[in-house]
Amino acid sequence: MASISSPQAPSPLSTALAAEHDDRRPSFPSLYWPVPGRASSATYLHDYKDIWRFTLFWTLLVYGIVHLGAGLYAVAMQQRKSWRVTWMLPLVFLLVAGLEAAMAGSVIGLILAGLYLTGRFQMSTWIPLVWALINVLVIVLSSFSIQGAI
Prior knowledge:
It is built from 5 helices and 2 strands. By secondary structure, it is mainly α. A two-stranded antiparallel ribbon has the order 1-2. α2 (48-77) packs antiparallel against α4 (89-118), α2 packs parallel to α5 and α4 packs across α5 (126-142). The longest helix is centred in the middle third of the chain and has 30 residues, at 48-77. Residues 11-19 have low confidence and may be disordered.
């Protein structure tokens, strides 16, 4: 017996979500001025791919800036060492930053997408930037050893 396959009709939930939000994808970074009284319209993220993409891009950017600063500081501290090896320090720091940011940005982006889409909330384009800054602060704070004096 041959089975007859009919095209599946879209679910009522996906139809309602598509009707609520148009399919315009905001361009990166799409930050707006959040203070009332200014002439700028708010931009929101509605799709999990956009939420993941914005979080990943912001995390890559912020991690890269912080790690590049740390790499340049390491170069400045290596004044009398071999310059053939020293110039590679910022490149190594940027490589590590890229790997860390890809992992952290992807995990946090997918978690945020799951939370916001499950609750059917609109995500401001500022939220991925804030989470990228939180990720960097966790990395910076975890680099210090905490010792209690008793």
